[in-house]
């Protein structure tokens, strides 16, 4: 069952009885035969264990199938990475996928049960939100304001509840379509309507800014009512860090003047930390010089892209462009990255971001200033420095793209393409890359950055051995 195919009838709590007190017992009774597989552990000698990884994901799929058969199709959302509150009120995501969340058998089954309970709570919260916003007024201008407020509230609710970079946007799209259904908006083109009004405005790996939330809400309201938005609307531009702000139109003018500004969240700048790490890491000494060619019949980066749930075809097409560029001539530049990224995202342009970016559910910040594009271009040029060994150059440019976060979306794929280009330009094509590309590397640790370089060197050596 694919979560994107769920209708409101599939998930409406009123149509699907559920006893939260028995969930833990049910999960244990339904757990796939054979037990919980071993957790992910990278072995530098054996490298990435594909069979073990396949076993973990197969276990997750079997667990999902069992839950769907027992509870109904709504239960497939248990792994949508929607957060829930712990006993002390903190918001946490209990299931982050088979690779990260499979630990001990007891902890793993508790995580599945907790994730299912959080998903059900989210659906029940949507019922309450739908009830608060319905019925919608019929007078066009009043209906426009109501639709705008409802769409913004739904986006804010979903993004705030999600602690996962890769899942909040699809669930947000679903929630909007479900509300259209409950509000009895006529027509069978809800998918097209939602995509036309919010598609491309939000991205999974960057927390949405208030202006983006407002724009999407306005677009949907205009499409449904035919009313042109007023040019003097002043929606908040600081969401989600201190939303609503004093400029929010839902707060009366007098209250806006009296209300003190909320201080911004004190979240460290991961990009600034990375730039310091980049300067202090011993790139020239942590890995030896390697000459190509090194390759087998397998292409590890291509295999990782091919396994993507979404956008695999576009990612592979971009990889073919990077491969062709590496076989030609010329340096790695932002213009080259942008060409590949347009293919990855299926867009006409992929410019350098112009605002600060957020990731990891708002836990990481990548600040912006006007000199970033030129600084990033200089970092890309260093990927051809012959004084630095190839493994270090490839690792450094990979981390540069991750932490400069140049694009609004798809930076992990862009980083993989940059790594691929730098290696392939020297005749190296890794036959195993999943362990590198599927690991989250810290921005703050010079020894960790050096470890990435040594890891790339190991992957090159293993490719050569095979």
From TrEMBL:
PROSITE patterns per record: FIDO
Entry-linked Pfam families: Fic (PF02661)
UniProt domain Fido: residue ranges: 332-458
Domain of life according to the entry: Bacteria
Listed InterPro entries: Fido, Fido-like_dom_sf
UniProt-listed SUPFAM superfamilies: Fic-like (SSF140931)
Protein name as annotated: Fido domain-containing protein
């Amino acid at each position: 069952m694919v979560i994107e195919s769920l209708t409101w009838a599939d998930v409406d709590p009123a149509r699907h009885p559920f006893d939260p007190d028995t969930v833990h017992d049910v999960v244990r009774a339904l757990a796939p035969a054979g037990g919980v597989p071993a957790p992910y552990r990278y072995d530098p000698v054996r490298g990435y264990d594909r069979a073990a990884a396949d076993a973990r994901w197969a276990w997750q799929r079997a667990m999902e199938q069992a839950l769907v058969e027992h509870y109904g199709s709504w239960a497939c959302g248990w792994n949508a990475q929607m957060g829930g509150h712990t006993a002390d009120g903190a918001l946490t995501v209990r299931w982050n996928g088979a690779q990260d969340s499979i630990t001990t058998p007891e902890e793993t089954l508790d995580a599945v049960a907790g994730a299912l309970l959080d998903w059900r709570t989210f659906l029940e919260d949507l019922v309450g939100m739908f009830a608060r916003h319905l019925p919608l007024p019929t007078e066009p201008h009043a209906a426009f304001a109501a639709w705008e407020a409802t769409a913004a509230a739904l986006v804010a609710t979903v993004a705030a509840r999600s602690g996962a970079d890769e899942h909040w946007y699809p669930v947000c799209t679903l929630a909007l379509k479900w509300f259209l259904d409950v509000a009895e908006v006529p027509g069978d083109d809800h998918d097209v309507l939602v995509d036309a009004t919010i598609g491309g405005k939000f991205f999974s790996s960057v927390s949405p800014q208030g202006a983006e939330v407002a724009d999407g809400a306005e677009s949907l309201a205009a499409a449904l009512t035919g009313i042109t938005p007023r040019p003097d609307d002043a929606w908040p531009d600081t969401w989600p860090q201190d939303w609503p702000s004093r400029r929010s139109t839902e707060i009366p003018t007098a209250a806006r003047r009296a209300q003190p500004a909320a201080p911004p969240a004190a979240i460290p700048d991961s990009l600034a930390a990375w730039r310091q790490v980049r300067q202090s890491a011993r790139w020239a000494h942590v890995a030896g010089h390697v000459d190509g060619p090194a390759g087998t019949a397998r292409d590890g980066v291509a295999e990782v892209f091919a396994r993507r749930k979404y956008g695999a075809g576009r990612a592979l097409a971009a990889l073919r462009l990077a491969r062709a560029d590496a076989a030609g001539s010329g340096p790695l530049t932002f213009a080259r990255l942008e060409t590949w990224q347009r293919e990855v995202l299926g867009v006409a342009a992929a410019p350098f971001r112009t605002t600060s970016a957020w990731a990891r559910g708002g836990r990481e910040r990548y600040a912006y200033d006007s000199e970033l594009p030129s600084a990033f271009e200089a970092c890309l040029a260093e990927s051809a420095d012959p004084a630095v060994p190839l493994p270090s150059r490839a690792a450094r440019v990979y981390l540069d793209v991750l932490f400069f976060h140049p694009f609004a979306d798809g930076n992990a794929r862009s980083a993989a393409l940059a790594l691929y280009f730098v290696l392939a330009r020297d005749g190296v094509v890794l036959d195993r890359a999943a362990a590198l590309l599927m690991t989250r590397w810290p921005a703050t640790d010079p020894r960790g950055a050096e470890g990435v370089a040594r890891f790339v060197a190991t992957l090159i050596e293993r490719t050569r051995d095979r």
